Amino acid sequence: IMRNFNSITLLLFCCFSSTKVHQDPPSILESPENPVKFSCNHSVSSYETMLWYQKLNGGSALKLIGYIVYTNPTYEGEFQKHFTLSGDGSSKSELQVLKLNTEDSAVYYCLHCDSNAAEAYFGGGTKLTVLDRQITPPKVKIFRPSPKECKNQKEEQRKKTLVCVASDFYPDHVTVSWKLNGEDVSTGVATDSAATPVDKSYRITSRLKISATLWENQDNSFVCIVSFFDGDTTIYRNDTLDVKGLFFRKLILVLV
């Protein structure tokens, strides 16, 4: 007898890593009416059950689609006519959406466990977007810090914030990263948890907080890089802010 996996696996979501479960692919863009398939495999053959969940965009709840024990699938009522489970719960399972519509846009997760759900492992998830408009890569712009920021603070507390805005892209399959003088930067980075819908496109913002001393060093060059999945490959858009150029232009204005 299967337990209530809707409640049990929500508790397990933060407790077990996905290192033993491989889910593929990580991202899919597809047109309405077409079918799509996700796959999931694992390395613990003593676990005979594979479950599949849907997490709608903007939501936090996981909805159980169904599960397969060995080769026997079981579906939740609302998903039975629209989804198909196949494979073997003890090794590999596939979830197929038979005929896509825009409401199917979501992140899909597989979960591998034994029949008692005593221990379980999630896959990394597959983000699916069912397209309803033309794919458009992002425009990227870095905005320099405000001259008023940290103006009255003590020297050791002075910080400056660079803001990178990626806009006018669709769909929202993006990640943002920073480089300083060609080296990856992670300290001081705060990026929106998700892209924000704006009209018929998306926008995402990332902030890089640095010491004022670092900002005032004219040898420094900052780059904001946005990776965008267009359905076939990942493309990159970036913007560069050279401190030396900014101070040089400022000097010209003062002299004029």
Please give a structural write-up.
The protein folds into two domains: 126 residues, Immunoglobulin-like; 117 residues, Immunoglobulins (Immunoglobulin-like, Sandwich). The chain starts with a helix and ends with a helix. It is mainly beta. Strand 14 and strand 15 form a beta hairpin. The strands form four sheets. Strands 2, 4, 5, 6, 9, 10 and 11 form a seven-stranded mixed β-sheet that branches. Strands 12, 13, 16, 17 and 18 form a five-stranded antiparallel β-sheet that branches. It is built from three helices and 20 strands. The C terminus is likely disordered. Pfam families: C1-set, V-set. This is Ig-like domain-containing protein. Keywords: Disulfide bond, Immunoglobulin domain, Signal.
What string gives the helices and strands in order?
HEEEEEEEEEEEEEEEEEEHEEH
Rg, rounded, reads 23 Å
How would the global form be characterised?
elongated
Supply the helix-strand structural class: mainly beta
Q: In the CATH hierarchy, what is the class of the largest domain?
A: Mainly Beta
Average of pLDDT: 87
Work out the helix count.
3
Main sheet properties: 7 strands, mixed
How many strands appear in the DSSP assignment? 20
What's the N-to-C terminus distance?
82 Å
Question: Hey, roughly how much beta strand do the residues contain?
Answer: over 45%
Which CATH architecture of the largest domain is right?
Answer: Sandwich
In the CATH hierarchy, the third-tier topology of the largest domain is known as Immunoglobulin-like
Low-confidence stretches: 7-17, 248-256
Number of domains as seen in the coordinates: 2
CATH fourth-tier homologous superfamily of the largest domain? Immunoglobulins
Helicity level? 10-25%
Pfam families: C1-set (PF07654), V-set (PF07686)
Keywords: Disulfide bond, Immunoglobulin domain, Signal
Protein name: Ig-like domain-containing protein
Organism: Acanthochromis polyacanthus
